[in-house]
Amino acid sequence: MRVIVADHRRCLACHSCELACAVAHSETQDLAKAVLAREKPSKRIFVEAVGEKAIPLSCRQCQKALCVRACPTHALVRDPVTGAIVVQAERCIGCYSCVLACPFGVIELISGQIVKCDLCDGDPACVKACPTRALRLIRPEELVSRRRQLAASRFLKFKARREDEGSDSKL
Amino acid sequence: MKDRTLSFDPAARQMVQRAQREGLELIWDRLEAQQPQCGFGRLGLCCRHCVMGPCRIDPFGNGPEKGVCGATAETMVARHLARMIAAGAAAHSDHGRRPALLLREVAEGRNQEYQIKDPAKLVSVAKRLGLEVEGRPPQELAKEVAEIALQDFGKQDESPLRFLTAYAPKSRLARWQKLEETPLPAGGKIRIIPRNIDREVVDIMHRTTMGVDHEPLSLLVQGVRCALADGWGGSLIATEFQDILFGTPRPRTIRANLGVLEKDYVNIVVHGHEPVLSEMLVQVALSPEMQEKAKAVGAKGINLVGLCCTGNEILMRQGVPVAGNELHSELVLTTGAVEAMVVDVQCIYPALPELARCFHTKFISTSEQARFPGAIHLEFHEDRAEEVAREIVLLAVENFKSRDQARVEIPDIAEEALVGFSVEALLEALGGTVNPVIEAVKAGKIKGFAGIVGCNNPKVTQDLFHVKLTRELIGRDILVVGTGCWAIAAAKHGLMKPAAQDLCGPGLKEVCQALGLPPALHLGSCVDCSRILVLLAAIADTLGADVSDLPVVGSAPEWTTEKAVSIGVYFVASGVPVHLWPEPPILGASRVTEILTRGLKDILGGWFFVEGDPQKAADQMEAIVLERRRLLGLED
To answer: What CA–CA distance (Å, rounded) separates B324 from B326?
Structure first.
């Protein structure tokens, strides 16, 4: 199970992720053709601005997903391979329950269809499109293991410095 | 990087492999690092013309539909396209200004470094301008011709460019004049006849700045006017004045590709666009004195070769071999065999000095307008041309001592090409008039003509589209003429040898054999696209027809620069449908796209079409030629 994470410090609000997302969900998957097509594709990621800062938001694929719980027809299910919560269109009745339940506001109902991030079958277009690598697709366990490593090294460096200084402080 | 998809040219692939082995960065690496490229930019939907922005428009209608000022997608795309045309026209025309100024100085005796090499061309230009030529000394005539050209750059009245009215076909001029009476939907008239070359560029910069012109059609009309100021003005002046000063090209056989570099010689590569310096470099480098100096440092002599359009200029007039087109500019350095790369202006990658430093190569910039971090700058001035040329050649000769022969790898690949087809040379080959080709077209031996121009672009496999499209067209009895990087591609791939007649359809083969011509004709550098215009005018005027009636079609299948946009637009405005690949940054605006790909047909007789497959592009080009034949009452 991998998730998309966004580093807001790297996001320049260029909206490239939005564009790539829409193209990836168009019929031809080609920018020029998608623009010329009659039916315009929809994006599933949103560069949200707060003052001068911005951060891209898309579905977290929550483990205890409120959208899944809210769905009265069990139209939302988890893809066993990618871990993404995907819509079974034939079951969806367009009742807005999932849209209202989502605490991140990243599920939309457009022309009677639920539109949400499906992780592009495990290879998200938004991540590939991000020119500053603000978006990454990672396994949460990788992230926490890296964090642990960093924390451990910070801790040990601190200890070593204290010992060099002959301090007897107990940390 | 998969080198097979990078270039169709085996010499290029050999050098790419070397670069990969040695960890040298090439243009394809930088293209890869830029992926994916911004979708807003590709569609023309971003605007940075003021600092209320930068603004973007969402092409899928989920986000903003207007910029901060209220500019729509249509306005943004049209403004941006107009600015591309202005930049392209400026580059060609500023180039043209230089030989015009130089001719005036030579005529006034203020410059002793150059001469009027082709007085006959001077007389023919003067005649076209309606000047009295009988009994007048060349200096006097040259001064008057130069003054008229310089007035076309600076006059402040509303009358048309004098060079345009002197050269454009009569029926085309009449069509443009009639359009001036045609009202635009948003008010005003379709005024597309240029008044002053510089003014049309400035006009675009004015009307595209914040809060001026927002009507897409009006913006496009001014774009057309500026492009015409380039084609029938700046570019044409560049060609004609260079011919007067350096000689009108005559057919000659040259060699093309990296194999023109010589292991035992001092290799000097000239790259860029203007022949004013490179003509002098050829003269100095080939002098016995300099050849002796080269021998003194252990070389067998000096081998001067061209690249890009500077290469085209000196191969057309001096028969200098050409090392390659735009995408060869890094690869020629990768041979390790170059003592000096000497550059002037346009299409010169700023990455070159760094690559040159990986070898002993000196990278020498010469133009006050074009500086490169990491370069040696030896500034060229027309009034001390020989002195600067000597300094450059001596630096190259001296640098031969620093060459590491163990690091030299020159691909043993070069093709012969018959080049040098100025309009004058072509007419001479045809016996003085265009009638033999017109007869061949009427008889159906030649179905029509295609002009292929333009650049290399790392997004397209180098030369692949140029070569495949050319082969498809000549195979269908369509004679191909062209300029720029296409011409070098065609030369490198053997399409300019008389033997290429075997690739033609039966009719074209017969005509080419009878006239001793290859089926792909080298008309020169990118400013020499004006030669194609002059040729079209000669055919149109002979038939009493307009260019838009002729079975002609154009293509820029690997285009890169803003200059190519200007060229494409002046051909379309002159009545030639033009194929483009890659797609231009206009698709974000449906109305602008509609106007350029369909609407222009009714207004100007030419239009754009985009196609990424060479065979399909050839199908469409052939269909246009056949349709126009049908309208002329000619059989397929």
So the answer is: 7
Which residues in chain B have Cβ-Cβ distances shorter than 8 Å to A34? 59-60
Chain A residues contacting B, CB < 8 Å? Answer: 14-16, 18-20, 22-23, 31-32, 34-36, 40-43, 128-129, 131
Query: Which residue shows structure tokens 């790392």?
Result: B458
Residue B492's nearest CA partner among B417, B555, B545 is: B417
**How much is the average pLDDT of A6-29?**
92
| Helices and strands: H and E segment counts in chain B | 28, 16
- The residues that bridge with B462 in the sheet, in sequence order, are B7
ipTM confidence score: 0.72
Residues B540 and B559: their CA atoms lie apart, in Å, by 27
3-class secondary structure, A144: helix
Under 8 Å between Cβ of B303 and B270: no
Phi, psi angle pair for B85, to nearest 5°: -60, -45
Quickly list H helices, B336-483.
Answer: 352-356, 385-399, 423-429, 435-442, 464-475
Q: Kindly list the distances between the CA atom of residue B608 and the CA atoms of B351, B579, B601, in Å, as whole numbers in the listed order.
A: 33, 6, 9
In B, minimum Cα distance to A130 occurs at B36
Report H helices in B3-72. 3-6, 10-22, 27-33, 39-43
- For the CA atoms of chain B, what is the radius of gyration? 24
CB B616 within 8 A of CB B623: no
Q: Which of B36, B59, B63 sits opposite A35 (nearest CB)?
A: B59
- Among B212, B333, B331, smallest CA distance to B268 is for B333
What is the residue whose two structure tokens read 């623009």?
Answer: A35
Give residue B36's pLDDT: 83
User: For residue B243, what are its two tokens?
Assistant: 């011919």
The identity of residue B384, as a single letter, is R
Q: Given its phi and psi angles, is residue B254 left (phi above 0), alpha (psi -120 to 50 degrees) or beta?
A: beta
Residues of chain A contacting residue B60, judged by C-beta atoms under 8 Å apart: 19, 22, 34-35, 40-43
CA-CA-CA-CA torsion sign (B295, B297, B298, B299): negative
pLDDT in the model for residue A167: 59
Residues of B in contact with A15 (CB under 8 A): 40, 56, 58, 63
pLDDT tens by residue, B466-512: 999 999 999 999 999 999 999 999 999 999 999 999 999 999 999 99
Determine how many CB atoms are found less than 10 A away from the CB of residue B144.
18
Q: What residues form DSSP beta bridges with B524?
A: B483
Q: What CA–CA distance (Å, rounded) separates B294 from B393?
A: 10
Measured CA to CA, the distance from residue B472 to residue B602 in angstroms comes to 28
Put simply, the answer to whether B63 touches A18 (Cβ < 8 Å) is yes
Between helix B235-246 and helix B138-154 the angle, nearest 10°, is 160
Q: Tell me the C-alpha distance between B404 and B412, whole Å.
A: 19
What sign results for the dihedral spanned by CA atoms B571, B575, B579, B583? positive
Provide the CA B369 distance to its chain's centre, in angstroms.
19
A77 DSSP 8-state letter: E
Helix B562-573, helix B73-107: angle, nearest 10? 90
